[in-house]
Amino acid sequence: MAKKRILVVEDDRDIHELIRYNLEREGFEVLSLYDGALAVDVAATRKPDLVLLDLMLPEYDGLDICRQLKNEGHTKHIPIIMITAKGTESDVVAGLSMGADDYIPKPFSPQVLLARIKAVFRRGSTPQEALDTQGVRGWGDLVLDLPKHKVSFKNHAVALTSIEFAILEFLSRSPGRVFSREQILDSVWKEGKFIIDRAVDVHIRGLRKKLGPAQDYIETVRGVGYRFKETE
After folding, report:
1. Superfamily for 5-123?
2. CA angle, 189 as apex, 107 and 79 as ends, to 5°?
C-alpha cells in the first residue's frame, strides 16, 4: 500500500521538525513548506492526501490559503487540518466554514496530532459498522452510498468534506432521533476534547448548503440539537 502523503505548512521550524519526525515515524510521506507562498501550487502538483496548515504564517494568511485550496478544482477534495496558535473561536469558525476538516490548537502533543490525522483518514472511508448494516441508504432522490463514500441528489453528486459525510452518516442511521451537539461531537470527533460546540453548527450549515433542495432532511430541534428527518 502506498504511503499517505501529508503536506505540512508551518513556519516554526522546531514545531515543523517535530511534526515531520512523528509523521515519518508513523510511515507517512511528508512534504515540507515553511511559508505559504507555494502551498496551493505544491498541493495541486504533488497531490497530498492531507494538508496540515498553520493559520499564522509570515506574509501569507493561512485562512486565505485554506480558501484557495477549497476553491480550486484540483485541491478542494484534499482534507485540511488547521494548526492555530490563535485559539480564537472566530478563526476556527472561519476555517471550518471554508471547508477545513478539523483544527488543532497549539500547543499539542504528537499523540493527539497523529490521532486527529488518522481520524480524518478514517472518516474518508466508510465506517465498518455502517457497512455491516446497510451499504446504500436512500430517501427519495437523496442517496447515501457507503461503500463508495458518495452522496447524490437527483443523480447529481454532492461533494462533502469527510466530517460533513460523517455527520450525515451518523444522523441518518436513526431518522427521527434527536442528537445533541455533544453526542455528535463524541461520534465524529472521538480524539481530543478541544472541539468547540460551534464547530458542529458550522459543519451542519455547510452540509445543508451543499445538499441544496435536500437540506430539509437535516432538522434543527431548538435547544436540543439536530436530527435526520423521519420519512414514511
Report:
1. Response regulator (3.40.50.2300)
2. 80
Give tens-digit pLDDT for 176-212. Answer: 999 998 888 888 776 554 566 678 888 899 899 999 9
Grid coordinates given for 196: 468547540
Torsion sign across C-alpha atoms 176, 177, 180, 186: negative
For 128-228, CATH gives: 1.10.10.10
DSSP annotation of 56: B
**How remote is the C-alpha of 222 from its chain's centroid?**
25
Beta-carbon count within 10 A of 85 CB:
14
pTM of the complete model beyond 0.90: no
Strands of the sheet containing 218-221, edge to edge, are 178-180, 225-228, 218-221
Q: How far apart are CA 189 and CA 119, in angstroms?
A: 8
Domain ranges of the chain: 5-123, 128-228
Q: ∠224-228-232 over CA atoms, to 5°?
A: 125
Q: 3-class SS at 55?
A: coil
